[in-house]
Amino acid sequence: MIMKELYRRLSLSLALLLMLSSTVLAQERMVSGTVKDENGDGMPGVNILVKGTASGTASDADGKFNLSVPSNDAVLVFTFIGYGTKEVSVGSRTVVDEVLVPDQTSLDEVIVTGYSVESRREVTGAVSSVKASDLTVVPTGNIEQQLQGRVAGVTVVTNGQPGSTSQIRVRGFGAFGGNEPLYIVDGLPVGSTEFLNPDDIETTTVLKDAAAASIYGARAANGVIVYTTKKGVKGGKTLRVSLDVLGGFTDPGEGIDIMNPADHAKWTWKAFENTGFNAGEPPVYTHPQFGTGSTPQIPDYLLVGSQSGVNGTLDLAAEREKYNVTDFSKDIYQVTTPAEGSGTNWYDAITRTAPLFRGTLGISGNSDKSRYYIGIGVQEQAGILNYQNFRRYSLRVNTEFDLLKNLRLGENVQFTYRQVRLLQGAGGGSGSSDDENDILTAFRMPTIIPIYDEFGGYAGTRAAGFNNPGNPVANLDRQKDNRGFASSGFGNVYLEFEPVPDLVLRSSIGGNFNSFYTWSYFARTYENSENNSAVTYNEGAGQVFGWTFTNTANWKKTFDDHSLDVLVGQEALNTGEGRNMGGQGLNPFSEDRDFVTLSTTTPGSTRTVGSNYFKGVNFTSYFGRINYGFKDKYLVSFVLRRDGSSRFGSENRWGTFPAGSVGWRISEENFLQGSSWIDDLKIRGGYGVMGNSNNVDPNNQYFLYATGVDPASYPIDNSSAAEGYYRSRIGNSAAKWEKAITMNIGFDGSFFNSKLDVVIDFWRKDTEDLLFQVPITVLNGPNATPPFVNVGEMLNRGVDLQILTRGKIANSDYELTVNGGFLHNEIVALNEGATYLQIADADPDFRGIRPIRNQLGQSISSFFGYKVMGLFQSTEEVNAAATQDGAAPGRFRYQDINGDGEITVDDRTWLGSPVPKFTGGITFKIKNFRNFDLEMYMFTSLGNKIFNMSKWYTDFYPSFTGAAIAQRVTGSWTPENGGNSIPIFENNSNFSTNTQSNSYYVEDGSYFRFQNITIGYNLPVATLSRMSLEKLRLFVGLNNIFTITDYDGLDPSVGGDVDFRYGIDIGNFPITRSFTFGLNLGF
Amino acid sequence: MEVTPTASITNAQLTSKAGLEGSIIGSYAMLHGRGGFYAGSTNWLWGSVLGAEANKGTNSGDQAQVNEIQAYNPQTTNNSVFEKYSACYEGVARVNSFLRLLPDADPTVEEEDKTRMEAEAKFLRGHYYFELKKIFNNAPYVDETKDYKEGVEDATNGSDLWPMIVADFTFAWDNLPETQGAPGRANKWAAGAYLAKALLFQKKWAEAKALFDNIIANGKTAKGEKYGLVPLYGDLFRVANDNNKESVFAIQAAAATGTINNANPDFVLNFTYNGGPAGCCGFFQPSFELANSFRTASGLPLLDGSYTAPANELKTDQLVPAATAFVPDTGPIDPRLDHSVGRRGLPYLDHGLHPGVAWIRDQNYGGPYAPKKFIWTKAEESSGGVDKSSWTPGYTAINVAIIRFADVLLMAAEAEVELGNLEKAREYVNMVRTRASNPAGFVMNGGAPAANYVINIYATAWTDATLARNAVRFERKLELSGEGHRFFDLVRWGVAATTLNAYLAYERTKVSASPFLGASFEAGKAEYMPIPQVEMDILKGLTQNPGY
């Protein structure tokens, strides 16, 4: 509703133009009238045309209009973006009052493409938009998370941590890194949108192909996501207030099953027996806790002082005297008893039911010559992990003033305070899935260890025999005072000037600043086998400032059957110049939080400081676009943008990015006019080129040397670090833009009286001149960053579809929307002679397992390793099989791919791709069942694989000897019972057990998730008016209600740090069930 | 549109004296490897573990890629192999980068300094190529005349590295000053010793001997102190004795320099587990075979190998629970054992008695022993010899000698044996043994020697070259164990296959979950590591080492 009103002023100016150009004819007479909206408010700016002529007018601020008509036969056509077109015969009337209702056809939705606004009917490129209400129903903090499943062709990679950075990919993965889309907020490009308050968003538009996006030229190759925020609107009520409140709880759910203490002991013994079996020897039973007999014994105490596995009774009073967990100058002395029964559930111990709250107060209004929107937002969302919390306070102020009749001054600005606590994983939380974090630790801690020792201190692996997991409860407790927060400002000021009625000149200067501060304490630990030996304190800060200066001229004119829309513009920007600094100190005199600063840590060289300085990247751009339409039937668009960037050396600094598209509204043709079931049908086709430079460091053009205490200092005097220099970068001044060439054919249709809307796009995107670091030999010095050079090609192709049906059940309107995207991603070319991408980042190492390879003909980040045919069942089978290092009964039998009788590195093969073949969402809404509304949302991801690396930690005895064992190991191969899936549990780590990437870890990652159901109750109008309210809706919702999947791990929503660590599950932070409730209030 | 880089330096800025000196420092810096656990020049894995002095230790799954290395069967894709290879070439590249800068040196840089710096650089390049030669044999060679897109891409391997190594050390020997401003710099005598070592590896006995004679008679440290043996063997591994008179060339280690990369990052895993100093991570556990080698009879080692006979084996606490009493071996042993091998019931430096299994991560896999050289003492901890700025305090300021004078003496002794001067060899060996037998250097427990230390010099004249050769070689094992030399010695002596297969067979019987199950040493292959697969893929001119 508000979204539609936003465009009244634009329409008004267009209508004025029409009015002025109309010709006065002889027999004409005047009619007048009022146009009202569905609420009975006068609608300004409605376009009223006399059918078959060019004469027309537009309604004024109160919805009133006057128009001369040629005769009684005249038919008036009322049009307004977002509302149904209405044709009315004048007859003999002199007063024609009409009510317009919002259009049900999604083809009429408004598409905000950043520099301009179009109706979907006019669009010839691949564009999707999402309704703000669809987004706010999801109770997350970040708007990008809410896009999942809402837009065909958009992949959202995220996890369950509040405040986690999510990674968005539009139409696949175009390059080896730097695949994030360009975000535009109120016309300004921005690197991240996590500062935005979802309730402030007015429109969200995704530009997917070159025809739509290449107006953003060099930065558009990965798609463009355009947000606009709410504005005050002309006309209607002078003041509107809305209050949106959402509250709820997130439940942590269940962890994976870990063996209880008795089973842990039993299976430790089983490991000894199996080890003996494969060594051909009797088992050797020995464990610091469970004794040396042929049956394991759970000891009376796990730890007494320095003794582990103690039996007998203790005089606890006497022990308490010796207790010491605080004075590190003496020996630590603890008494720890084993946890009983099923033992400690560590997942339960580190998680909690987490409350969440989001509230936004929106105030919008207008006066004669000004409009404003003020949004005040608060989000407080606890994570399911102890102490994890996300907090955002935002203030948005958008205003616009009519300085003159044809001159407007406006601004959009937001100030945000943002704090995220205890985020796990690199990349703002996006790397949590391949991170050895507390979630993983909960599954590595044996259940026999209690959380606390006998006297209240933490218990842990100081008790020998359980290897090295650290008590995760203690770990989190100790970090509870760690903080990190950012404050930012983002916005622009613009002038819009209409020197003549057809022409809008717009100039905008915008900027964003971001400053952050962090501090963290790391305590000395005592309860673990591997302890921190120092108290560490870190503090850091930084700031960055970027700016954008944009000037555009937009000329729109319609004459006779022709419509023309011409946009030319110029833009200059800097992505952000700034500095960061950080310091670290050790062992302050006291750990009192009021005492500790960097200055109170131990003086001297253990107090370190570092900083860095960056200048951002400069862009200068010129662009233009012509849209031409003939009879509203044939549409042509041509876009050209030329960009220069300081990322590249002078020889290839500039790139030119053209795109063209055509549309044919076939439903306007005579031969379809008679069709009763086709309301509207358009065929679109587009071709064009977009650029990308995200993936290249601005210093790529230079040969550089550097200094640094870590890589190059040396204590030549045997006491302090002398500064050393080394070559840090090999330059390539010839690097140029990556080019994404897109082709798109789309159909937009509306059928059966708008009961069915279909948007289908068939698309293909070829990325050429891919920038990546062609591997160079270490003979150049491996510390020098190799240059990015333009080689390689990537193919993405797919089908995006959106199907919407609507109708009535039981007198209620329902709407069912299916969004889906098929994606095929393939590496087409690499550097000459290479069959796979040989750079370290593309070959990550997880505890010696290297599961990923980027290979020609496969998708990005595919899983690679040995294919497990099963387990060796006998020595005879081992002897008969291909030679394989470490082969023995119960161990993996790998497939001899090349059939040479020997398992070597050449027998590794493709184990699957983490890239889903299909992702999609289904939304079902009932809008007005009596006073209730209902929305359901489901999401599915199909055809992707997950590398469940967490099994490496929990399923193999030698991975970390003595650590926790997954319950599923009870089904592992044994000499007695055989088995063919889970390998023998034994103390052997070799090629045939746990050292190689193989298909054992690869699981089907497909899932279907019932993500949300929300039921709302709208107070009846009568009640509302008694309360002087416009709207009051109360709602309750359930999120992540159930998930259907074959995946064995905690949660199949495994993203990770794309693009090179995609789908690796080590400590994936699960998305779990939550309950929400709230209200939407308006007056 | 032009945005200049920040916080970095262009080539032209490095041609000042300070820039050139800093480039040399950067070249020294790679002695520490700077990343990973196997990249530095300590060679604890490549020399000592492969040389049968220790096994990887810890448990089987930890750093599991090392399992196949210590089983003498690494995959060509093994990351630790690549780590070492890569770090050596970073060292080479830094030297080459410096040598390319040198001709453009600012005119104010004095000739004397330029010569000295060039010589230091070439010394270091000699060192890095020596590492590559020992470990990879057929490693490709690039010098300062080849660079990115200027010939590096055409590199081949297979031509012998020795002439280039010898040329670099010769330049250093001819041009380095006898004393240096900082103790960590290579001086003339260090270059001489390294040159002699290179000649020894090539069996150029006479040339090596001539140099050794000169070094033993006249050599001095960078500080100007005449070479000699420090009186107490255990002092070699103490922070306070860094750059002692025995230190010919050492990796300089210092704590709290702002990076743990200057504090022996290679050794961080090589501390006892779950107690004791650092408490992590249980790697580098001395082998049964090594420990037994310290058994003496009449104060001399059992050169016939009978130290592994049941009657002579050391008593161990293998499979003895912590709570069960244990009395350590009481037979005669060389006192260097208890400076080299941590064992239950003996003082573990000043950390009290080693408690046995309580400090061992997985005794059933790694055996009963703990490393002892290069482990910090409590005294060092309290006097700032330990860098505690990282995840474990396993970073020390203890220098690691690449060549120490005892090594020079024993190398000289080898040359003398091969030249037939057996008595001269005996003299050198006895110098080393005399120091080891200094009772003031015995590990003490409660005021008395902690074990039954019996050590004598070879009092009888050597007349049999084989016996002399065996005695010299055995002395190297005892004196230099755990210091990263043994495997390379075994290979150059041509005895690697027999020695190591015997070792595997023996060690295999000692623990049930032995890391050596199924392992064997394949002669003609296992002497050298494979050229890393990734480099084979990039440089088409490379030929893989035999057997891989």
Q: Describe it for me?
A:
The complex is a heterodimer of chains A (1083) and B (548). Chain A is mostly beta strands. In chain A, the strands form twelve sheets. Chain A has a 22-stranded antiparallel beta barrel. In chain A, strands 10-15-16-13-14 form a five-stranded mixed β-sheet. In chain A, a hairpin with a 4-residue loop joins strand 36 and strand 37. In chain A, helix 8 runs antiparallel to helix 9. Chain A is globular, with a radius of gyration of 33 Å. The N terminus of chain A is likely disordered. In chain B, the strands form six sheets. Chain B has a two-stranded antiparallel ribbon. Chain B has a two-stranded antiparallel ribbon with strand order 2-10. In chain B, strand 4 and strand 5 form a beta hairpin. In chain B, helix 7 packs antiparallel against helix 8 and helix 13 runs antiparallel to helix 15.
Entry summary:
The complex is a heterodimer of chains A (1083) and B (548). With 1083 residues, chain A is mainly beta. Helices cover 9% and strands 42% of the residues of chain A.
Structural class of chain B: mainly alpha
Q: Output the strand order for the largest sheet of chain B.
A: 1-3
Helix coverage percent of chain B: 25-40%
- Tell me about the biggest sheet of chain A? 22 strands, antiparallel, barrel
The class by helix and strand makeup of chain A works out as mainly beta
